[in-house]
Amino acid sequence: MASVVTNGCGAGSNSSTGSTQNGNNPPSNVQTITVNGGPDSNFVDGAFTNVTVCVPGSTTSCQTISGILVDTGSSGLRILSSALTISLPQQANSSGSPIAECAVFADGITWGPVETADVKMASEAASSMPIQVIGSPNFSNIPANCTAQGVPMDDLANLGANGLLGVGQAIQDCGSACTTSGQGMYFACPSSGCTDTPESLALQVQNPVAAFATDNNGVIIELPAVSGGEASVSGSLIFGIGTESNNGLGGATVFGTDPFGDFSTTYKTTAYLSFLDSGSNGIYFLDSTTTGIPLCAGNLNFLYCPASAQNISVENNAEAGTNGASAPASFPVGNGLTLVSTSDDAINGLAGPFPGLIDFGLPFFFGRNVFTAFDGKSTPAGTGPYTAY
After folding, report:
1. Neighbour-count burial for 72-92, b at 16+ CB within 10 Å, e otherwise
2. What DSSP state is assigned to residue 380?
3. What is the pLDDT of residue 251?
4. Residues 217, 74, 302, CA angle at the centre, nearest 5°?
């Protein structure tokens, strides 16, 4: 859902983390994020940041890349080949065949080689991380079982960002399933063509924040409240939960999730699988199009267009078998046609249908401090995974 509007694809915080900014010198675990039009100036409700990548072990062969979309709905750093100007080491299997990946998202796939980089944000760093380089010209022949899973998002026009920073609950982007089979995600690519291949946990593309030396148990996204639309807003991506004076949970409600961040939400007496996903630019949930919220017409029929703004109430519940937390939440749904017809890039109220699931996209983050605790990592509220706000 990352670029759903581009492609024709709040409440106050319960937390008390304190100030995350200090004039021009933010704390060492704080990375600035900005909701704006992105590097192609056509993105709505995308939170972008800068990421520095280096050849492993080098302090001089480095590049800082702007326009990276912050995504709590995935794990791993992915950078467009067109945005990358330094050469990084190519990952290969024991036979010397280059490894590539097909990562699947709701609105398409990213295809490209797995390469290795030191990753730096704020004053934090992760060494020798596997990352995906999207759209590499040396890997132009995409396997059929990859394209069968979605449309390639291999350039700026299709991705809407220079890359994706996946900071979801999962440590690896596939996990144990890919250690015995590539699952249509990992491929060995000798000159004869690419074939599905297993990939060990250590070599999979993975959440770089979880590999930091400190502040590595989760992240917080802090964004100001937005009423209707604004041209842009700035906030913070904070590393760690309960590890520094600026990242405590305060009064946030903690919802236990599965390793990929899923919990449960009840809407109109029906329970849905749900997740908090900063990489989605709207809140996507199913409401009857005959007796409930009407859809927009034409090529915006993936958005809701009520005659007047609606306030939707739901009940969020922890994943079964976790901590049993339950709490109400609400969010606005505005007229999608009216909202996107402005020049604003930070819009509260964008929503649309998503059968069977509830995707709490970036508008849900406005005015909230949203915590993402990583799978297996210890925090003051217990071991992750969980989400909290």
Report:
1. bbbbbbbbbbbbbeeebebbe
2. T
3. 95
4. 140
Pick from 214, 204, 260: which is nearest to 77 by CA? 204
Residue 189 shares a structural domain with residue 277: no
CB count in 10 Å sphere of residue 320:
10
Q: For residue 152, what are the β-bridge partners?
A: 109
Cα separation, 273 vs 362, whole angstroms: 18
CA proximity to 227, closest of 326, 363, 132, 329:
363
User: Under a CB-based contact definition with an 8 Å cutoff, are residues 167 and 75 in contact?
Assistant: yes
Tell me if residue 231 falls in helix, strand or coil. coil
Instruction: Name the domain count of the chain.
Output: 2
Average pLDDT over residues 6-23: 36
Is residue 273 a contact partner of residue 350, using CB atoms and an 8 Å limit?
no
Residue 349 covered by a domain? yes
Beta strands in 214-338, from DSSP E residues, in sequence order: 218-222, 229-230, 233-239, 254-256, 263-267, 270-276, 283-284, 310-317, 326-333
Range of the domain at 301: 247-388
Q: Which of 211, 237, 265 is at the close of a domain? A: 211
Range 250-275 average pLDDT = 96
Same domain, 110 and 189: yes
CB 310 within 8 A of CB 279: no
Output the domain CATH number for residue 61: 2.40.70
Q: Which of 52, 385, 27, 73 minimizes the C-alpha distance to 217?
A: 385
Q: What is the pLDDT of residues 280-291, one digit of tens each?
A: 999 999 987 667
CA pair distance 197, 178, nearest whole angstrom: 8
In a domain, 367, yes or no: yes
- Beta bridge mates, 195: 188
| pLDDT at site 340 | 95
Mean pLDDT of 19-25: 49
With cut-offs at 50, 70 and 90, classify the pLDDT of residue 13. Answer: very low
Does residue 16 lie within any of the structural domains?
no
- Same domain flag for 193 and 81: yes
Phi, psi for 88 (deg, rounded to 5): -110, 155
What pLDDT score was predicted for residue 20?
A: 41
State residue 291's pLDDT score: 73
